[in-house]
Design brief:
Elements: H1 25-75, H2 107-110, H3 113-116, E1 141-145, E2 150-154, E3 159-162, E4 200-204, E5 214-215, E6 223-224, E7 235-240, E8 245-249, E9 270-271, H4 276-285
Parallel strand pairs: 3-5
Antiparallel strand pairs: 1-2, 3-4, 4-7, 6-9, 7-8
């Protein structure tokens, strides 16, 4: 009768490894090296996939916000939602698209009621989820100091509205002293002449530069009042008055402004003469009267 040989699988403590082969150190090192190579190939792919997801989410957010802006004008006889900043005055009814003050006012970027509370935000009837106002690539947090403890809370808003859209001249940010020579859009119909596809409304803002609900643009081209975000692989996302949203790649390294050690925010009016990205933003902002 033929003898059937069965291959033994697993570890037999009584065998003392007789007739078995084990991994050598070299073979083990080869396996580890292969795993390391595979990880190095996969990690960039996973990172790109995550960034692609962030970009898609940010685009979706701005589409919802520009839709709210459009519906507001339709519901209010062509009038655009008011823009600007109004620090520390919460006594009146909602009078800005979202409420907020300046860099030094923590609730501006940490109080969800400023975004979706009907007492504070004109967009509250149109956008119910405060997460819509936050770019997922923005991981910025604010330090809030209470009477007993200090806590870190996430920054809740990443987007701002073109400062030449329905903002009071008395509320313009320096250095906009020449703002009176440029068109201030207060009604949707005023955007027909330049073409609504040529005027940005909302922009994804550098986390260190996010400030009032308005995005400041120095039309002289000499400085950045607020920097655009470059979190999407050195690109920013903008929503335009015709409703389309686009990704724009920044070309000047100065536009990709990181926060310096010890900075709590980026100050207004940093020199930017000759910056082609600022020149492009200016072209999409407004025009002379």
């Amino acid at each position: 009768m033929a003898t059937v040989h069965r291959r033994k699988i697993g570890f037999d403590p009584d065998s003392r490894f007789d007739g078995y082969s084990a991994f050598t150190l070299i073979e083990l090192l080869v396996v580890i090296a292969i795993i390391a190579i595979l990880a190095s190939l996969l990690l960039p792919t996973l990172s790109r996939a995550k960034q692609t997801g962030y970009k898609a989410n940010c685009i979706s957010n701005e589409r919802q916000i520009i839709a709210a802006w459009t519906m507001y004008a339709m519901d209010n006889r062509d009038a655009l939602a008011s823009n600007g900043g109004d620090p520390h005055d919460t006594s009146t009814a909602a009078h800005l698209w979202v409420y907020g003050g300046n860099h030094g006012d923590p609730p501006t970027l940490t109080n969800r009621d400023y975004l979706i509370g009907e007492k504070y935000a004109l967009f509250a009837p149109y956008i119910r989820a405060f997460g819509v106002f936050k770019c997922p690539a923005d991981r910025t947090r604010w330090q809030l100091t209470g009477t007993v403890t200090t806590t870190w809370v996430p920054e809740l808003r990443s987007y701002s509205l073109n400062c030449y859209m329905a903002i009071a001249s008395t509320n313009m940010m320096s250095p906009l002293s020449t703002s009176t020579i440029y068109q201030m859009y207060t009604r949707a119909s005023q955007l027909a002449a330049p073409g609504p596809g040529n005027r940005f409304v909302f922009i994804d803002v550098n986390p260190g530069s996010i400030c009032t609900p308005a995005f400041g643009v120095d039309m002289s081209g000499q400085s950045f009042i607020h920097y655009p975000s470059a979190l999407h692989r050195n690109a920013g996302i903008l929503a335009f008055a015709d409703g389309h949203v686009e990704l724009h790649k920044w070309r000047d390294r100065r536009t990709q402004r990181p926060m310096a050690p010890g900075e709590s925010y980026i100050h207004h009016g940093e020199a930017a003469g000759g910056n082609e990205d600022l020149a492009w933003i200016i072209q999409q902002t407004t025009s002379r009267r």
